[in-house]
Amino acid sequence: MAVTSRPPAPPGPPRPSGRGGAGGRVGRGLTLLRSPIVLLGAVTALVLAVLVVAPLAGLVATTLRPDGLTAWGDVVASPLSRNLFYEPLTNSLVIGFATAAGSMLLGGGLAWLVVMTDVRFKKTIGLLAAIPFALPSFALALAWETVFRNDRIGGRVGLLHGMGLDIPDWLAWGALPISATLIAHYYSLTFVLVAAALAGVKGDLLEAGEVAGASRARVAVSIALPVVMPALVSSALLAFAEGVSNFASPALLGLPVRYQTLSTRLYGSISTGQVERGYVLSLLLIAVAAIVLFLSTRLVGGRRSYATITGKGGRRRTLELGRYRPAATGVALTAVALTTVLPAAVLLLSSFARRTNSFTDGFTLHFWTGASDPAFAQGQRGVLRNPQVIEAAATTVLLGLAVAAAATVLGLAVGYVVTRLRGAPLVTQALTLLSFLPFLIPGIALGAAFIAQFGRPIGPLPALYGTFAILVIAGAAYTLPFAAQSGRTSVGQISGELEESAVMAGAGMTRRLGRIVVPLAARGLLAGGVLVFVKMVRDLSLVVLLVTPATPLLSVVTYRYASEGFAQFANAITVIIAAISVGATVLARRLQGAAQPWVER
Length: 601
Known about the structure:
By secondary structure, the protein is mostly helical. The chain is globular. It has helices at 21-33, 36-63, 66-76, 81-116, 122-130, 137-148, 159-162, 169-172, 175-198, 203-211, 216-245, 248-253, 262-271, 275-301, 325-350, 366-369, 387-420, 425-436, 443-454, 468-478, 480-492, 496-504, 509-538, 554-563, 567-591. 68% of the residues lie in helices and 0% in strands.
């Protein structure tokens, strides 16, 4: 079985006879339209248009009605604009820049140490650095609150304040803790991308620089850094976009002190009945994210020469740290411990604490397995005996599986058409654009778009708001870019020669898909499906506006527990979500056969 990076074109529609001209073009067009691949592409594009374009169109249409036009004026040009838009926008940009810079420095620095130097414990550092992105973003926010919360807003205080330490407001609430928790979450993405890019720098390139008289450190910076610049810039700007649009951390660490971002202001507007203002803020948030990703594409695309620097084999050589090796190892281990090990330990221990955020008053299993007791948490039962939590867990897993299945099927269709269809650029370009478009839409804005489009009856179709169906549809749209990329990669690795042989034996497209493409691409598709499952299990931004009491989800239940002051319950459920997410992520890596590229073999 031949596998190539650019497989030959699969069997397409037969060429019509004739010398060409207008008649030949018409004939070729009619033949192309009868092609099963073109039909599959057209149907897939229609489905994606319903999932992505229709909600956005509904969102825009709603804001162009009289109430919507009034909302535009209120948000951007009224005495309320400062509180509704400009101040939240400023806060979002501050957090976005801080998240991008911190992720680039921490993730890129750790990747450099692990791949390019002889730092010790590479496997341990690499594993721990890759975990935070698989965790819910609110896990780190809850851990921060458990440790640093002060008495500014009354109620429970954190561990440090409970020990008598005076925690300033800037450390407990607002921009710094939000940025710190988002950096600890998103640096993992930078680490993985930069480490993979650095792993491609072979020894012959470094040797060439040394032969020219450059020092080992200068060679590493002059040769390796340009190679990873696209990955570094892309991950930093994606971290910026995520920081701007994140909801969980600003809601937990900002809303209690009225520190608003665009995402929290959007949520507050819709949840309080100011729907049109929320929709306007959704469009503005989409615009900010789109500008950021556009700049990312331009910056990376403008440096194409970086991608041409490659090696042709040779064992990778590392920079010897010498007497700095112990210090570098200590810094790297401390960084991953503070972002992975310590938050996990804090969340787990605090879920057993008898008194909120205190490890000195004893521990109990009540918040996990206890029965209803008026002396504990207003009579709330432990999470493993709470019917609401159990129902939310079942709904969460079912939603993850349903979205993973739907997204995988869509991803397979997109991947097959894009890699196999020739002669219909409009179809392939439409699929590529539609499958990428959700990257431009922050989760909470996409949730608002689905409410605007499907929150009311459409002809004979009933309103979907409050149903499980809208969660599955929105989830499939939200995770489409990941599923489509998995489909393109998996199908693209299968040589078209196999299908050519099947066509000669009389097999149609459906049979080729079932007998050749799906079995050979199953490993990659399944790994992509697991990643989609993980994203849905840990996500809060998309579902926070769509969930109702009839469709409880673990992430939303966790947020509500945390908002109401039940920290032990919130932390216990977060531990459950983290265990599911990390376990599924490990499974996905094994299915992909993903070895750590920075570890020498």
